[in-house]
Amino acid sequence: MGTPMHPSGFTAVDRSGNPEHYVRVLDRAAPLWRDIRAAIHARLDAREGGRILEVGCGTGEVAREIARRVGGRGRVLALDRSAAMLAEARRRANGADLPVVYQLGDVCRLPFPNNTFDGCRAERVFQHLEDPRAALAEMCRVTRAGGRLVVAEVDQETRVLDSPDRALTRRILNHYGDQNASPWIGRALPRFFREAGLTGITVNAQTITGTDFALGIWGLDLAGVAERARAAGVISAAEAAAWLEGLADLHRAGHYFTALTTFIVSGMKL
Question: Using CB atoms within 10 A as the burial measure, which of 51, 143, 183, 196 is most buried?
Answer without folding.
Answer: 143
